[in-house]
What we know:
The chain contains 4 helices and 12 strands. By secondary structure, the chain is of the alpha+beta class. It has a single domain, classed as tt1808, chain A (Alpha-Beta Complex). The strands form 4 sheets. The protein has a 6-stranded mixed sheet, sandwiched between helices. The chain starts with 10 loop residues before the first helix and ends with a helix.
Amino acid sequence: xxxxxxxxxxxxxxxxxxxxxxxxxxxxxxxxxxxxxxxxxxxxxxxxxxxxxxxxxxxxxxxxxxxxxxxxxxxxxxxxxxxxxxxxxxxxxxxxxxxxxxxxxxxxxxxxxxxxxxxxxxxxxxxxxxxxxxxxxxxxxxxxxxxxxxxxxxxxxxxxxxxxxxxxxxxxxxxxxxxxxxxxxxxx
Length: 188
């Protein structure tokens, strides 16, 4: 027996998703997930806080970046609609934020805070889309395992630059101008 063809999801499906769900459209399929758990949200908030002053404001770092927390991004003709945990653009590519509900300009850096419920999609389909859209760097942060994986896009493929574990103090590209104390990300 042949399975019936699936109806292709649309942006209206994303807009109609129940709040407080995070709705994404990946390869024509609607993906709904609950808002992040507390460890997930805490790690994302702390990382945003660490990077914001030196890289967005230029306080104690080089500046030159714009960061957004859970931006809605539309990529492609039949758009893939992704909502990464954190995204950053070099200011020369995004000098001013548009007055719009979403962005179509691929980011220069993206961070997904992985959890048991999101890991497969973050590591698979979303990672593939970020490569297709030429996002320069991808970080996968796992607050439960206390691991940060750093990837750089090279010739359309992800190259693992480093994996950091536990409470290490590290320099991680593209933000290696400052030291990052990983213990801050795992604090409860």
